[in-house]
Amino acid sequence: MQQRFLDEMSQLKVAQTDDRELALCALRCELANYLVRFDPDRYFDLYRKARAANLAISCAAKSDQMICFHVRPTPCDVSRLRA
After folding, report:
1. C-beta contacts of 18-27 below 8 A and 24+ residues apart
2. Could you report the per-residue pLDDT of 53-76, keeping only the tens digit for each?
């Protein structure tokens, strides 16, 4: 009985994950559509940069890939650190 309950809970978690993935995919598509309509040149410039970064990360060694996820502080964050 308990195993059946655990199996059903596992299936529920998988279904929820699939639903979230679909919702995020739809949101990404809608945001892209909005950005293309709002400022197409800026969108395509951003897309080219993101695609180049994605290719560079995928071609790098695994240890180098992990370094690429380090987030650099923005100029606003740097000025706050100095104050």
Report:
1. none
2. 888 877 776 666 566 555 455 555
